[in-house]
Design a protein that fits this description.
Number of helices: 6
Helix content: 25-40%
Largest sheet: 9 strands, mixed
Strand content: 25-35%
Mean pLDDT: 94
Low-confidence stretches: none
Radius of gyration: 21 Å
Number of strands: 13
Strand order of the largest sheet: 11-10-9-12-8-1-6-7-13
Distance between the termini: 56 Å
Length: 248
Amino acid sequence: MKILVCISHVPDTTSKINFADDNTKFDASGVQFVINPNDEFGLTRAMWFKEKQGANVTVVNVGGAETEPTLRKALAIGADAAIRVNTVATDGFSVAKQLANVVKDGGYDLVIAGRESIDYNGGMVPGMIAGLISANFINNCIGLEIEDNSAKAIREIDGGKETVSTTLPLVVGGQKGLVDESDLRIPNMRGIMMARQKSLTVIDPVEVRNETSSFKFEKPAPKGPVKLVSPDNLDELVSLLHNEAKVI
């Protein structure tokens, strides 16, 4: 089984976010980048398939050379090879188009992508990939088993979980729960050294017209001052909730 894991290069959640050029561009200076958490769950599940079923695992990213350390980390975790599509990730459709081209050229049986990336939270790329390559698609996936050409998955739905069955080729939008957090892997020294010897192929992008564009970013408004109300003064509390907070 050939597995392709899509890896997004995203800011660490502890990073301080700023914008430049009159709030039109993300300021990456001083920001630590990591593997998108949803993608990391998917990569860990792919490693299980590699170790238990002999699957071959390739990771892929759409981005410039600055994303290669993130791909190298994925290789150090245990992926067999990496591909970088040499273009800036602009909008969801263009990224999906580039990834779909990689899938078609590589003949992958299973594509595991994160449900969404934690930077733009678009949540559209996995479904678009499936549509572009005419593959089955399972989103919000929190459990996955593969046997021969058949797949059984558990996905999160409103108010519960749903178990579904389908066949390969398959695109999965994974998330927390696809593996236990305790199963996530930190690269060890041996993995880091081996990653230097593994293939990281840079390919040219296909021509794609961007369907959307970002023209301005805005930070959330700062929180206002906290008002303390005596537990004995319920009338004031009700008045504040009604007139200022407007929640009742």
